[in-house]
Amino acid sequence: IQEVVFMRPGSVTHAFNMSQRYVGLDIVSNVGPTVEVISPPNGNVASPGYYLLFIVNGDRVPSTGVWIRLS
Known about the structure:
Layout: E1 3-8, E2 12-13, E3 16-17, E4 21-31, E5 34-38, E6 49-56, E7 66-70
Antiparallel strand pairs: 1-4, 1-6, 2-3, 4-5, 6-7
């Protein structure tokens, strides 16, 4: 595992997509089947709402996305 990322889905209106966002997370521990990451520091980095969580391997291939909700 090389990266853990959040992707916020887009919200397109009138040809603008203002809410899509990529947030890379810092990996603290990657031991066995468990990965520990540091969450975004505040709502300016990752505003509350739904995100897709991806785990990316060394070949830059992402996992299947899992929906999560930040509050």
